[in-house]
């Protein structure tokens, strides 16, 4: 499953010197799925179900487009109209995009100084992106810092050179990738999470199998109380074994990561647990988790583990 979906709104990438290069770099990543709307839908008949499924599968949504007439190109506007529907993206039950991160990545033809108060275009890019910011608000997505590059048009003999705009496109994609890397956990962190919850799904009888994943002085703050160290974890885990049968399912959503100044990695995410209690009753519970990770001898370990009910 791709963690990042890129929605490309360029109407004709074959004629692009910048967006084509940016998308080619993004295509090289295993965690990125690029959806080139103009190629997918040359007849402008958008497959709404396919587009919504792509959004549901991703943690980060990138809108990649050239800035046309102070807005998005027509194919991207149609995608918004057709895909971001009532009951899916907004409305009383339209929370399917809630918590996903939205990154606007746009290439602008004019220079930066023309997008200022008193400049040729009168308004700043921040102001001109207000409609997309409001889209993020209405759909309950998390607005991220936009990635904007200016002077991205090449007109032979008139404006810029091909080498210059392609160089700017390389710089743009590097900034975009840095933005994306800062919003998602690294591969080792993802692997740790997958291994941890795979064990919690099965609830092995021996709690010792969990201990390599946590620091000696680990602290668990959970609804049942505060538990410190490996011995504290064992007491908490014994209580879990008394509540749930093996064969649980943990669905992880809305993951965000940040690096602290002290070198720790902090994670915040939502977990939905489904399964059966030891009494035979069905269980479905959604909680908020926050982890603090530390690296010990090259191995990631959980330093602080917090679980909160909504």
A few lines on this structure:
The protein is built from 9 helices and 12 strands. It has helices at 19-27, 37-40, 48-57, 74-83, 125-128, 130-138, 162-181, 187-202, 229-241, and strands spanning 4-8, 32-36, 60-66, 101-107, 142-143, 147-149, 214-222, 225-228, 249-259, 265-276, 282-296, 299-308. The chain has 2 domains: 4-181, Rossmann fold (3-Layer(aba) Sandwich), CATH 3.40.50; 187-308, Roll (Nuclear Transport Factor 2, Chain: A).
Distinctive features:
310 residues, alpha/beta, Rossmann fold, Nuclear Transport Factor 2, Chain: A, 2 domains, 6-stranded parallel β-sheet, 6-stranded mixed β-sheet, 9 helices, 12 strands
